[in-house]
Structure formats: C-alpha cells, structure tokens
Amino acid sequence: MTSGGGHTPIALARELRRCASLVASLASILAPLIAFLLIVARPAMSAAVAAGGGQETAPQFSLPEGVGWNDWQAVREQHNGRATVRVFVPKGAAPATAKVRLVLALRPKPSIDSPQAILDTIVQTAKHQCQKVSAKVLDKSAGELLFELRGVGCAGQSGERYLLQRIAFNGQWEIEATYAPMISTDDLPAHEKEHAVKLLSSISVAAGASPAADSGWFLITPPKKADGHYDDSAALPKWKVEEGAGSEDKCERLRAALSSLALKQGSSSDIEQVKASRCISMNDPQLDGK
Fold this sequence. Notes:
Blueprint: H1 9-40, H2 44-50, E1 60-62, E2 72-80, E3 83-90, E4 100-108, H3 115-127, E5 132-141, E6 144-152, E7 160-170, E8 173-181, H4 190-202, E9 204-206, E10 217-221, E11 240-246, H5 248-265, H6 268-276, E12 278-281
C-alpha cells in the first residue's frame, strides 16, 4: 500500500490506528446523548437552508478565558456550509465515559422570531417522544433564553433526562449551547448548575473564516438484512453514520484505510460492511428520503 497525499509510512500507520479507533468508539461517544438531545435539537442543516440573507462567511465560537473553558476539551467538530457543531467533555475524561457533554451549535438565525418560539417548538416535539416533558426558564431577554428541559419516559431512555440549554441570537446568527449530563438526573447540584450557566452564558460569536465548501462529509454503512448480510440497496435514511470525516477527500481516505484494516484484521462481515460503505455529503437530499 502506498502512503499517498504526502504521508510518510509512519504517519500513515498512525492515521490508520486513529481511524480504526474513531470508528470503533463512535457509538459510545455520542449514543448516551443522541436519544434525548436529538429529540429537542433542530438539525443544523435545516436551519441553514431555511435562513435567508445574512453574511456569507461563518463566524467562530468565542469562548472567553477565565470562566472555565480551559477545563474542557473538544472531542468533535463538524461543519456543514454555514453551520458548526462542537462537542466538549471535561479534560482528562474519556469521550466514551464522560459524565457530561457540552454541545455547541452555531447556525444562521432562523425565520422564527424569538428564542421562546423555538423553545415552544422544542417542547412540542419532545412531547411526541416522551411521556412527560417540562421546561423552566431561568433567564430571558429579547434575543436570548436560558432554560432547563426535563423528559421522562423518552424513547430509548430510562429514568428522567435533564438538559440545561441556552438559545441566543447574535446578529444574523443563532447560538444553541447545551449542557447535558450523561446520567439520568432530575436536576444538577447548585455549584454544578452555577458553573454550567456561567459557561453557557459566556459563549458569543467572533468573525472568522468560512469552513471549507467540501466539509460535512460522512462515512455511512447500510443496514443488516435478516440473513446477516448488508443491504446496500436500502434507502439512505436507513444507513448508519459511522464517522464524520470533514471533507470528501478525507472521507475517501478514511474509507480506504478502513478497507485495508478490514482485509488484514477483520472478519468477513467487517470486510462486507466496509466494502458496502459510502462517503456522502450532509447536503445530499437522499438522506432526507427525498
């Protein structure tokens, strides 16, 4: 196998190990959060498409020093056109076992005219997925809302789930910041809540370069059939997102690396899965079943 793309053999070997580790741990990194967070989160791409006008260069998150951001590490950052999502866990915590996640989303301001209207929509959506949902506003202004959201009996969850979330409009942009414990809890200890509110309230946006136009690519694999083989003719919404790889080139390199690893170390099922995998843009309308 050639090293390609300017990589030395050592660097390529290191990347192969990293790629294998990323794919193996993806589900455990985000699975505890997805079931409830995706109930209340609005897809970043949908908001970007719905928003009209505004500046063309995407700003960056501004995380000021002195409020505790130095205690957190980013474990994922995904760009999709003008939208950005970053996931943080406490420094020193393993992404798969961290007890809390901080999820930041930056997207063009939606047509909905107030954070309260967004919260109302979130609550209504969550009520379809949970037996009981409640929201408590902690702080409110014309363009900003900080609230607690609780859900009991939510799909795929046990116990009571808790989120502390802030929605803020900043010019033509919207910030959505979520503090999410990874364990069932109906509240946070006072000191932890104070710290979380301080972090969420400190986030603003600063001018920055737009993400690359080809960012927002994912490696996906088809669902399994009853006979254990993979159905590569299934509709794309049924496929599984294995890894966000950034650009199309990076995704194809990841796919090639995993294919090589599967041939050397994987089972016949692993080889079939990687062979059937695809790289696809988050913008692809087939992902929405269109």
